[in-house]
C-alpha cells in the first residue's frame, strides 16, 4: 500500500504514450492511466490526445467538472517536474 511517488520529467512522461502504457499529467500530478483508457466514456482516441503529455488544457476544455483525482487515486505515479534539477 502507498507506493512511492516519483518526480517525472516531461521526457519520461513522453515515453508512456500508447494505450497499453499511458501516463498523463493533470494539474501537476502524473497518472498511469493504462488501465483506465479502455473505460474512458469519451473513447480511447480522445483520451490518447493527452497521452504522454500534460493533458490539463484538453481535460479542462472537455470536462473540468470530472473528479479525476478521486477516480485515479490508485494510478498516481508522482509529480510532474518542469524545471531541470540541474538548473540552480
Ligand atoms: C468524457 C474522464 C481525459 C475527452 C469523459 C467522462 C469522464 C471522463 C468521467 C464522462 C463525463 C460525463 O459524461 O459527464 C476522463 C479522465 C481523464 C480524461 C479521468 C484523464 C485521465 C480526457 C482527455 C480528453 C477527453 C485528455 C481529450 C480530449 C473526453 C470527451 C468526452 C469525455 C470528448 C465526452 C464524451 C461524450 O460526451 O460522448 N471523460 N477523461 N478526456 N472525455 Fe474524458
TrEMBL record:
Protein family: Belongs to the flavoprotein pyridine nucleotide cytochrome reductase family.
Residues of the Cytochrome b5 heme-binding domain: 5-81
Superkingdom assignment: Eukaryota
Protein name: CYB5R4
Amino acid at each position: 500500500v502507498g507506493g512511492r511517488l516519483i518526480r517525472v520529467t516531461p521526457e519520461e512522461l513522453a515515453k508512456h504514450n500508447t494505450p497499453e502504457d499511458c501516463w498523463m499529467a493533470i494539474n501537476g500530478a502524473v497518472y498511469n492511466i493504462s488501465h483506465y483508457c479502455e473505460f474512458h466514456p469519451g473513447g480511447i482516441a480522445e483520451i490518447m490526445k493527452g497521452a504522454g503529455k500534460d493533458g490539463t488544457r484538453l481535460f479542462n476544455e472537455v470536462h473540468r467538472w470530472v473528479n479525476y483525482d478521486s477516480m485515479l487515486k490508485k494510478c498516481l505515479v508522482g509529480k510532474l517536474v518542469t524545471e531541470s534539477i540541474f538548473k540552480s
